[in-house]
Design a protein that fits this description.
mainly alpha; Rossmann fold; two-stranded parallel ribbon; two-stranded parallel sheet; 9 helices; 6% strand
Length: 210
């Protein structure tokens, strides 16, 4: 699984995908068997990688189109079920998601700040989760990294290469791995292990202590 949405973009030839049939291009047949060789190409071959790149381009288009309107992607029936489930989760977690989103929104509204997400979830499921939790407005797809293959520390290094070493990084999380990676790179770490930690973060951002 790629670490970042653009990791396979160099294999994309820019072909118009408006009439492209993902269901019949042979990609899945090649993907199900490492030893299967078809006219459509073998897994990892040039043709297969191009088809993979097409899929990531399509995912990027869908994410960017629906990041502020997930209901439009789900359709009316699933939208209602999703909204109901979201409401139930909010009630059970004392509005954890709403509180988190408030902090993320403050950060993304600042002209000199960005939100970057590093997750141990594989990239495509991670993007789906971000959309379903209505976090798409807080995280541009280019700022989402999957640490499944390379680990969080390597992701941090990649992010520092991208944004530079002169900017201030603040790591917000609840795990040992990200805390250790933050310590190694001399980044302040804000631990979120309870609801009060989340409220404190929001307050710190609101009053511009952070």
């Amino acid at each position: 699984t790629p670490v970042h949405i653009d990791d396979v973009s160099s294999d994309d030839n820019g072909q118009d995908l408006s009439t492209y049939s993902f269901a019949t291009d042979g990609f899945h047949a090649a993907a199900t068997s490492a030893s299967l060789c078809l006219a459509t190409g073998v897994r990892g071959g040039v043709d297969w990688m191009r088809k993979l790149a097409f899929r990531y381009r399509r995912v990027k288009e869908l994410y960017c189109t629906y990041k502020n309107n997930v209901g439009g992607l789900l359709g009316p029936a699933k939208r209602e079920a999703w909204l109901q489930l979201r409401a139930e989760v909010e009630a059970l977690t004392d509005s954890w998601l709403t509180t988190a989103l408030k902090s993320l929104s403050i950060i993304s509204s600042r002209s000199n700040c960005v939100n970057v997400l590093v997750t141990t979830t594989q990239l495509i499921p991670a993007l789906a989760k971000v959309l379903l939790y209505s976090l798409g407005s807080a995280f541009p797809i280019e700022n989402i990294y999957s640490a499944t293959k390379i680990g969080k520390e390597s992701c941090f290094e990649r992010i520092m290469q991208r944004f530079g070493r002169k900017v201030v990084y603040v790591v917000i999380g609840d795990g040992v791995e990200e805390e250790q990676a933050a310590t190694k790179h001399n980044m302040p770490f804000w631990r979120i292990s309870s609801h009060s930690d989340l409220l404190a973060l929001h307050q710190a951002l609101e009053f511009e202590y952070l």
